[in-house]
Amino acid sequence: MSNQAARRTRSLSADKRAAILAGAKRVFLRDGFAAGSVDAVAAEAGVGKQTVYRHFGSKDALVEALVVGMCEAIDWSAPPDASSDPRATLRRELNAFVLGLSTPGSVQLYRAIIGEAGRQPEFARLFFEAGPKVIRSRVASVLCGELPDSEASEAAAILVNLALGDAYLELVLGITPPDPKRFERQIDAALELVLPSR
Amino acid sequence: MSNQAARRTRSLSADKRAAILAGAKRVFLRDGFAAGSVDAVAAEAGVGKQTVYRHFGSKDALVEALVVGMCEAIDWSAPPDASSDPRATLRRELNAFVLGLSTPGSVQLYRAIIGEAGRQPEFARLFFEAGPKVIRSRVASVLCGELPDSEASEAAAILVNLALGDAYLELVLGITPPDPKRFERQIDAALELVLPSR
DNA sequence: GTCTATATTGAGATAGAC
DNA sequence: GTCTATCTCAATATAGAC
Questions:
Q1: Domain of A22: which CATH number?
Q2: Of B122, B140, B172, B193, which has the fewest Cβ atoms less than 10 A away?
Q3: Which residue spans does the record list as DNA-binding (chains A, B) (predicted)?
Q4: Chain B interface disruption, residue of A111, A122, A162, most B CBs within 10 A
Q5: Would you call A132 an interface residue with chain B, using a CB distance cutoff of 8 Å?
């Protein structure tokens, strides 16, 4: 009967979809959402343009699928550790965060999100909720053991800000290349300021 | 002879030029450098499109003139004061900085600069040199009287970062509206951390 | 379901009237 | 020097072959 082809009435190739999204990532993060073209995405993905439209319907929908997918894939947290030293835990956590955010893909996504924030507030919110907000609360939860709850939230915000510090603004602006050592120094200085060792 | 018309061989109307730049500012900061059109600029400025091209030659040149002009016009510094209290001076200086950077025009310029940083590094550098870098050194020069020179530069960077804090990221992302009181609280907390009052 | 060829719109840039 | 009308090309989206 129809047991073979029954449920594949509208089945599109998952491989092609992934290839298109990969192409879209390269094109749109390099050229920007406005200047990047569907033609370029199709060429980059090695598929016909019509295939892109079959899968996503429009350029806007493709861009949205890309941004949503990248935001959902964000995971800048450090794996859990057995150590009970909160300073060491915070150092690992903050380090994983800045490294994740320093990735070329993350920097390009960050630029694109900021650049479109005035026109696409949903993208900005999605990114904020998936990234900075998560890190803040992870850091705050560690700090709750060390500081009064009333101070933990504010201290977490300070730590996260200082961990990024100047280095991140300069990285996003393309002034200086990524420098893990510089981030480590910023993190150590931040920890010393918020949780003095003596 | 030619003494009347001699030197106006290539004189264009300064009024029109200013009107075009004002229109370009509205259009490009609202729609982005890529999506904003010269037609829209001409309409916004109330001139013909050809006039735009007579004055600037190309869309790229127009965008560059706009960005350069806005960066050169940046002045987020506080006026000098007679007070000799470095904490009060720093508070005024940092407050003027965050207020200047919170202006709708500044936020939109910041977004556009970040969004194009991967493709237009010169714009990013121009902005950085005219804005953040200037504030850093102003703050550092005040701190030189309070801290060893070796620490003043780093402390200045920390102060500037904490003055912007979470509030600025959320403002740029369009998550929260501008809130001068929140900035003031961030500045006070930052000063207390870097220059404890007791 | 995927590709090639095409319709249509819009934007950058220019020619010519005044 | 400024505007109106136009050229040209690129990009979104679609139609039809396989």
A1: 1.10.10.60
A2: B122
A3: 37-56
A4: A111
A5: yes
* CA atoms A164, B164, B169, B111: torsion sign: negative
**Which residues of chain A neighbour B118 with C-beta distances below 8 Å?**
30, 108, 111, 174
Across the range A96-110, mean pLDDT stands at: 97
Does residue A116 lie in a domain region?
Answer: yes
Interchain CB contacts (distance < 8 Å): A and B: 106
Rg (CA), chain B: 21
For the entire predicted model, the pTM comes to 0.94
pLDDT digits (tens, 9 = 90+) for B10-68: 577 899 999 999 999 999 999 999 999 999 999 999 999 999 999 999 999 999 999 99
Locus of tokens 């924030």: A117
Nearest by Cα to A101 from A189, A26, A187, A193: A187
Distance CA A189, CA A15 (A): 46
Cβ within 8 Å of residue B138, ≥6 positions away? B77, B93
Q: What does the pLDDT read at residue A192? A: 96
Nearest to B156 by CA among B132, B137, B177, B134: B137
Residue A1 located in a structural domain = no
The per-residue pLDDT for B187 is 98
Q: At A178, which CATH number?
A: 1.10.357.10
